[in-house]
Design goal:
Residues 6-154 form the Resolvase/invertase-type recombinase catalytic domain. The chain is an alpha/beta fold. It has helices spanning 22-38, 60-70, 82-85, 89-102, 119-152, 175-189, 194-203, 216-224, 250-266, 318-332, 336-343, 350-374, 380-404, 417-423, 429-439; strands at 7-13, 42-49, 76-79, 106-109, 231-234, 237-241, 280-282, 290-294, 297-301, 315-317, 440-445, 460-464. It is built from 15 helices and twelve strands.
């Protein structure tokens, strides 16, 4: 080719561990020095930082360089070493084909002699590429074997970013973040949507490990990850317990997976707009009633047809029935029957009875401590010291009872109906629905005046879960 060669400089490094890009910067300096010595003006730089040439992953700048060669933007290439250009013989042949089609013969390497203009030079380059590929394959096998051994020993997989809830060593629990993980898990198990939880965390100024806002996908990845239940995952499979302390119990992990699977089956994609979705039944045919808006009026209707199978003869205004049943739920939270159900006092299950006895014993000790402090028999410091472990026992027993009685959504709410009523309007709809659903199995809607905006109480027959 006549004229002065317009050179493209290519630099690449597989792993930029500190994120500074110094490795590729040094390569470019040497490439510029070689271009100056050859008298080739530099027409462009192409840099793929932190990308392997053996993995087969797409290298954007490498592809751009090939396009510029094909389009005649550059007619020479300078690379620090052949293994920076490629470590795959097939990819080398594709590179040579692009050069041949564009008529480019000017290719130089800073390190290692290579002349692509002769048959012997091409043979050397192909042999070097084969050697580089073999080295990469051997290294990959060694790394894979090391990873297998680490996984079998329960060692954590150390990525570039620590998992939320754990310190930089991937093992030590971060107490503040771990509490957030437990809170999110409890709310998700209770029925609250990930969208709702993410919105709340962002509003509270709680960032992810990278300092960004939470997304539903990020929260889901945390919740379904077995590592939070202390399990080591390798190649997509749980291979055994990890050496770190779990943040969540295996029981909660399984419940999270069950809730996630149920949500996927349900296929809900839009935010919930109706408090009683899935909780109303038509008294005429017994079929579920569905939310249905008309102009500026929200309604629940029994829908006829093959998809729904209802009679199509029942309608009720949404706002009144939601207000009535929400108030009934709040009232029921303070009822003796619900308190008995929550505490397991009416249960015949031996495990529930044992946890109930544990809860009652801790509660009795708390009351005894308070009496002793009030009588001046112990100091405030002694009272606080003795109170802390008892408080932990109470909270632990309450959580176990909630799981055994399947009332996790109501933890901390039973007996506090009046307080919850005062803050009810501040709760998001997903949380309100979870609370209602934990208490109410469904409500039967009876016939009434179709034009009446005021819903009579005798039209609603609640069927309580608890």
């Amino acid at each position: 080719m006549g004229g002065v060669a317009r050179a493209g400089l290519y630099a690449r490094i597989s792993q930029d561990t500190d994120g500074t890009g110094l490795g590729v910067a040094r390569q470019l300096e040497d490439c510029h020095r070689l271009a100056d010595s050859l008298g080739w003006p530099v027409a462009g730089e192409y840099v793929d930082n932190d990308i392997s040439a053996y993995s087969g992953k797409r290298r954007p700048e490498y592809q751009r360089m090939l396009s510029d060669i094909a389009d005649g933007v550059i007619d020479a290439v300078i690379v620090y070493h052949l293994d920076r250009l490629t470590r795959r013989p097939l990819e080398l042949e594709q590179f040579l084909a692009v050069l041949d089609q564009a008529g480019v013969r000017n290719v130089r390497f800073v390190s290692g002699p290579a002349d692509l203009s002769t048959g012997d030079g091409l043979l050397v380059v192909r042999m070097l590429a084969a050697v580089a590929a073999n080295e990469s394959a051997s290294k990959a096998r060694r790394i894979m074997r090391k990873n297998d051994q680490s996984a079998a020993a329960g060692q954590p997989h150390r990525g570039s970013t620590r998992p939320f809830g754990y310190e930089a060593d991937f093992v030590t629990i971060n107490p503040t973040e771990a509490q957030i993980v437990r809170e999110v898990a409890a709310r998700y198990i209770a029925g609250e949507s990930l969208r709702s939880v993410a919105t709340d965390l962002n509003a509270r100024g709680i960032p992810t490990v990278r300092g960004s806002e939470w997304r539903t996908s990020t929260l889901r990845n945390v919740l379904v990850n077995p590592r939070y239940a202390g399990q080591r995952v390798h190649r997509g499979q749980i291979v055994g317990p990890g050496i770190w302390e779990p943040i969540l119990s295996m029981e909660d992990h399984r419940r999270i997976l069950a809730v996630s699977a149920e949500k996927q089956r349900a296929g809900r994609r839009t935010p919930q707009r109706y408090l009683l979705s899935g909780l109303l039944r038509c008294s005429r045919c017994g079929k579920p009633m569905y939310s249905s808006a008309r102009v500026n009026r929200r309604r629940y209707v029994c829908i006829a047809g093959p998809d729904h199978g209802g009679c199509g003869r029942m309608t009720i205004s949404a706002e009144p029935v939601e207000e009535i049943l929400a108030e009934a739920v709040l009232y029921r939270l303070d009822s003796p029957d619900l308190i008995a159900a929550m505490t397991g006092r009416d249960s015949t299950d031996a495990q529930t009875q044992a946890v109930t006895a544990e809860y009652d014993a801790a509660q009795a000790r708390m009351e005894e401590l308070a009496t002793m402090y009030g009588a001046g028999e112990i100091t405030k410091t002694e009272w606080l010291t003795a109170k802390r472990p008892l408080q932990q026992r109470l909270e632990h027993a309450a959580l176990r009872l909630a799981r055994l009685t399947k009332t996790s959504a109501l933890t901390g709410l039973v007996g506090n109906g009046d307080q919850l009523r005062a803050s009810w309007a501040e709760l998001n709809l997903s949380r309100q629905h979870a609370i209602v659903k934990a208490v109410l199995d469904h409500a039967i809607i009876k016939p009434g005046s179709p034009r009446a905006m005021v819903v009579e109480l005798d039209r609603i027959e609640p069927v309580w879960r608890l």
